[in-house]
Amino acid sequence: MNEDYAIAVFWSGADKAWIADAPDLKSCSAFGATPEEAVSELRVAMAAWIEAAKANGMPLPEPLFRQALPAAE
Fold first, then answer.
1. How much is the pTM?
2. Cα dihedral sign, 68-35-52-70
3. Who's near 62: CB < 8 A, 6+ residues apart?
4. Domain limits for position 30
5. β-strand 29-32 against 8-12: which pairing, if any?
6. Sheet containing 17-21: which strands, arranged edge to edge?
């Protein structure tokens, strides 16, 4: 299901790292030395976020954001 959620990736000069963020999932983000590493870490965080929401009986948010470009495989 986490393939339905958009991912934003950007460089953070303050953190000196790439940040990957899932805007539809509150406070769900990750960082890495490369954009690919940040996205990989975010996918783990997204799965944990979704699992925790389900375990607590919380509804999953509808995906609102859209990616500007399709994710690279």
1. 0.83
2. positive
3. 24
4. 2-55
5. unpaired
6. 8-12, 17-21, 29-32
Residue-level length of the chain:
73
Interatomic CA distance for residues 52 and 72, integer angstroms = 27
More confident residue, 62 or 73: 62
Degrees, nearest 5: CA angle 35-50-4 = 60
Q: What number of CA atoms fall less than 13 Å from residue 41's CA on the CB side?
A: 18
**Domains contained in the chain, number:** 1
Contact 42, 31 (CB under 8 A): no
pLDDT 10s digits, 21-59: 999 999 999 999 999 999 999 999 999 999 999 999 999
Quote the distance between the C-alpha of residue 11 and its chain's center: 15
Residue identified by tokens 């948010």 is: 61
